[in-house]
User: Fold this.
Amino acid sequence: MVLQGESGAGATTSRGGRRTPGARGGRRPTLAAVAELAGVSLKTASRVLNDEPNVAAPTREKVQDAAQRLGFRRNAVAADLARGGSSRLVGFVTGDLANPFYSALASGIERELRHHGLQLITTSSDEDPERERSLTEALVERRVGALVVTPTATDHSALQRELDGGLPVVFVDRPAQGVEADTVVIDNRGGMRDAVTHLLAHGHRRIALVGDESRLWTFQERRDEFVATLRGAGVESPQHYVRDGAHDADLARAFVTELLALPEPPTALLTANNKITVGALQALREHAGGAGAAPVALVGFDDFALADLLDVTVVGYDVVEMGRKAAALAVSRSEDPDLPPRLVVVPTRLVVRGTGEVPAPGSDG
Assistant:
């Protein structure tokens, strides 16, 4: 009968009334408890539970029976480390777990790792550089088999020693700063160029860009291409309608509301990620209710749930495939540590649905 815990983690009583050893106070049963119950040495119990050869069948059966009675579970991570290797776990430090982009990214990583007998641990930095550093240090200390990071910090030189030591480290969505490592990014410039060109073709010249934190590489790339493309089209002062720091939908809504209240408001909006697009849609809905409000075109960077039902034109790409590629780089790096650092650029595509095709007032677009 189980005395503590439904999982059998406590001590048990045999049919003869003898109390068998196990974990106390709700703790997990130990290897020592299994060895004691089976009447074997700790080393023998370890060999059986790690499925090592050259153990007599009756002894193996006794140890396995004891482990089952106690509810003992083998610590696979500890077993791997005891053999001098790394664990089968891969650590993933995301930017923001609440963002569906990172959920899809983690899904792609996990699907690829599964084919190689590896498992994923996902953590979130919440776009905080200090938290990112502490999470990567914690995962390295636990000897993960590989590390995938969406960087928000501006210096990753502390990971150089781990890279030199053979730990596969892959940076995804943004490149690292201060080290050279395998990297998977989106074609940010190509996607933004397509979006701006699309709006220009519909007669827009007053085009606004609402983006995330200015320190983030992804926004820097998208902003720089936005400005360059408008300048190439002869638009003066393209930075006039650029706003950054919209880290969530509420801030994005406030920025768009402010832009639309200008004496010469933008006739089109570009939003630099999915959360910002949601905030922009809220602001545009309020704007449409105003007297004499002109329609405003919208193109969002990143696809998102219900974007098709809302007819939102977006710059899309395969996020799951992006994660899969990052995991594949980590696996191949573990197999061949001497490979040079590799860069994978995931292509984007303009998904035309309606909001990006609203013509500028007075134009033929």
